[in-house]
Amino acid sequence: MDKLLEIIAEIGITSAYDHFAEGESPAPPFICYLIPGNDNFAADGKAYFKAEQVHLELYTDKKDPETEQLVEAVLDSHGVFYDRTEVWIESEKLYEVLYYFETEADI
Fold first, then answer.
1. CATH assignment of 2-104?
2. Which of 12, 20, 60, 92 has the most beta carbons within 10 angstroms of its beta carbon?
3. Residue 102 phi/psi, 5° resolution?
């Protein structure tokens, strides 16, 4: 997770693991990130290569291509291959741009 925290720090947007406490979320833009699982590679009955699945969620109150480009530039500079989706969350009045990728697990 050290590498992930380094990437998030470089993006420079307020962030929290999974969510902010009720009533404590900052004004957008902000990032929530989580590691919902892993995708380890096995060889000879052992985890030969450990990979973590990462979700990096960018929340904005309006479509914000400039902030999206910032996030993508940092991911690109670290050689992260990512996919992304986008959704409007009506109940929160926020856009969520989800970047999902895998990274080598810290051992």
1. 3.30.2000.30
2. 60
3. -115, 150
**Dist. CA 38–CA 65, nearest whole Å:** 30
Positive or negative, the CA dihedral 32, 36, 39, 44 is positive
C-alpha–C-alpha distance, residues 30 and 57, integer Å: 8
What value does the CA radius of gyration of the chain take, rounded to a whole number of Å? 15
- Cβ count near 56 (within 10 Å): 23
94-104, strands of its sheet edge to edge: 15-17, 30-38, 51-60, 94-104, 83-89
> 47 with 41: CB under 8 angstroms?
yes
Predicted local distance difference test score (pLDDT) of residue 91: 94
Summarize pLDDT for 30-89 with one digit per residue, the tens.
999 999 988 778 888 888 788 899 999 999 999 999 999 999 999 999 999 999 999 999
In sequence order, the 6+-apart residues with CB closer than 8 A to the CB of 72 are 82, 99
